[in-house]
């Protein structure tokens, strides 16, 4: 056996020292790094969630989900199966609970809301709350609204000054939500932004002001119509809140028809296994001289999240005058006006009698009917004495009697006569 020289021993000692230095660094750094990666987004106000296996395929994340299954919180019963989807019964009574029973320790400041549903023909134009959280004073702390008439999605939160922060999403790509097919609506709520996803595709993102924390002393509603507080008539498959704003973005909708996702290889290494494997690799590697460099090719990473919306542009120039519009509908009758002042006196005019003129003579009228007999007239004036005529010889005696002589008798007729009728037969008296 040949003994090693001093230089050789010094070199071996340096290699051993270097390897132990690397080993100790790995042991001390791995738990710290893993703790940062796993725990930086864990919120102790959120309990673990028991979800179907599909969610571990949908979301490429290697840790336990935390959040709230609102269907379980509100005790929604399972209903029929449609299109291979198990639906939930909403019933007819208002769906609300004390907020402290839904979120016992509150809600994390950043979260994702996921709801899968299909609108019916009778409700596709309704305005309804997916989620509505009130404080004890009746003010809205958080609400997610679907407006079928306007085909928009609204997110409302409460600011630090108890003011309402409303963000309306009007992108035309949201119109597909109202085609009476199953869709997954996702909302990512971050500390400074809100993003809306439809079927795992980003639709719109808006920057938000700072929001206040949530008070659990109020009430929480789900799937409620705005107009009357009754449950909206939809086919609901799930309604979830994750205590991680990234879930809405990481969801791949692998359970949707026609969507295929590659299986995700799950790695859940412990600190011991990492150290052992890494130490074995370190000790088996040849010692690199300081002059050696590692030339590693750069690998293309995954696409990053969309950036925040930019600032509003400057006000544009005034546009040209538009075309004249069609006449509008007739307005409503106006209100009754006040009584007017008396008018001025009119010009002097002639009376009707003065204005009339004599017309032409009309045609003769139709002869009238025979009238009733008139009243007796006044006695007439005495008439002139007429001439007497008689076929017999008449004369007046001295005593006032008439004496007739018919010429046949020698004896005259003496008597007082009221009336004398003379005819061919002679005469007679009455």
UniProtKB/TrEMBL annotation:
Superkingdom of the source species: Eukaryota
Where is this protein chiefly located? secreted
Cited InterPro entries:
Collagen, Collagen_Structural_Proteins, ConA-like_dom_sf, TSPN-like_N
Q: Does the keyword Signal apply?
A: yes
Q: Thrombospondin-like N-terminal domain: which residues?
A: 61-245
Pfam families with a match to the protein in the record: Collagen
Q: Where is this region: Disordered?
A: 305-387
* Amino acid composition bias (Basic and acidic residues), ranges on this chain: 314-323
Its keywords, alphabetically, are: Cell adhesion, Collagen, Extracellular matrix, Glycoprotein, Hydroxylation, Repeat, Secreted, Signal
- Is Signal among the key words of this record? yes
Cellular compartment(s): Secreted, Extracellular space, Extracellular matrix
GO BP: cell adhesion
Taken from the UniProt entry, a GO cellular component term is: collagen trimer
Which proteins does it associate with, and in what oligomeric form? Homotrimer. Interacts with FBN1, fibronectin and integrins ITGA1/ITGB1 and ITGA2/ITGB1. Integrin ITGA1/ITGB1 binds to a unique site within COL16A1 located close to its C-terminal end between collagenous domains COL1-COL3.
What is the recorded function of this protein according to its Swiss-Prot or TrEMBL entry? Involved in mediating cell attachment and inducing integrin-mediated cellular reactions, such as cell spreading and alterations in cell morphology.
- Similarity-based family: Belongs to the fibril-associated collagens with interrupted helices (FACIT) family.
Q: What is this protein called?
A: Collagen alpha-1(XVI) chain
């Amino acid at each position: 056996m040949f003994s090693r020289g001093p230089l050789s021993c010094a070199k071996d000692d340096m290699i051993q020292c270097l390897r132990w230095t690397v080993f100790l660094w790995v042991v001390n750094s791995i738990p710290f790094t893993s703790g940062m990666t796993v725990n930086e987004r864990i919120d102790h106000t959120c309990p673990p969630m028991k979800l179907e296996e599909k969610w571990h395929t949908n979301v490429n994340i290697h840790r336990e989900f935390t959040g709230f299954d609102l269907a379980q919180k509100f005790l929604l019963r399972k209903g029929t199966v449609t299109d291979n989807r198990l639906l939930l019964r909403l019933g007819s009574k208002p769906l609300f609970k004390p907020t402290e029973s839904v979120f016992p320790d509150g809600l994390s400041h950043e979260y994702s809301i996921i709801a899968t549903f299909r609108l019916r023909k009778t409700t596709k134009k309704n305005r309804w709350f997916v989620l509505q959280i009130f404080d004890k004073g009746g003010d809205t702390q958080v609400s997610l609204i679907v407006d079928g008439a306007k085909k928009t999605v609204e997110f409302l939160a409460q600011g630090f000054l108890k003011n309402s922060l409303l963000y309306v999403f009007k992108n035309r790509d949201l119109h597909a939500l109202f085609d009476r097919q199953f869709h997954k609506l996702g909302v990512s709520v971050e500390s400074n932004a809100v993003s809306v996803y439809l079927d795992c595709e980003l639709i719109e993102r808006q920057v938000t002001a700072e929001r206040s924390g949530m008070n659990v002393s109020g009430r929480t509603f789900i799937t409620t119509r705005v107009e009357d507080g009754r449950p909206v008539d939809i086919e609901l498959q799930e309604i979830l809140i994750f205590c991680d704003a990234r879930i809405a973005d990481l969801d791949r909708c692998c359970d949707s028809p026609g969507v295929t996702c590659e299986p995700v290889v799950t790695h859940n290494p412990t600190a011991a296994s990492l150290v052992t494997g890494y130490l074995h690799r370190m000790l088996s590697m040849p010692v690199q001289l300081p002059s050696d460099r590692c030339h590693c090719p750069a690998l293309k990473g995954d696409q990053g999240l969309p950036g925040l919306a930019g600032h509003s542009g400057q006000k544009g120039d005034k546009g040209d005058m538009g075309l004249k519009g069609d006449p509008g509908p007739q307005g409503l009758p106006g209100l009754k006006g006040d009584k007017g002042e008396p008018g001025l006196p009119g010009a002097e005019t002639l009376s009707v009698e003065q204005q009339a003129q004599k017309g032409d003579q009309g045609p003769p009228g139709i002869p009238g009917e025979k009238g009733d007999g008139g009243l007796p007239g006044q006695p007439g004036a005495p008439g002139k004495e007429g001439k007497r005529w008689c076929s017999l010889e008449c004369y007046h005696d001295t005593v006032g009697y008439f004496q007739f002589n018919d010429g046949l008798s020698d004896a005259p007729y003496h008597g007082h006569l009221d009336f004398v009728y003379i005819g061919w037969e002679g005469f007679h008296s009455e």
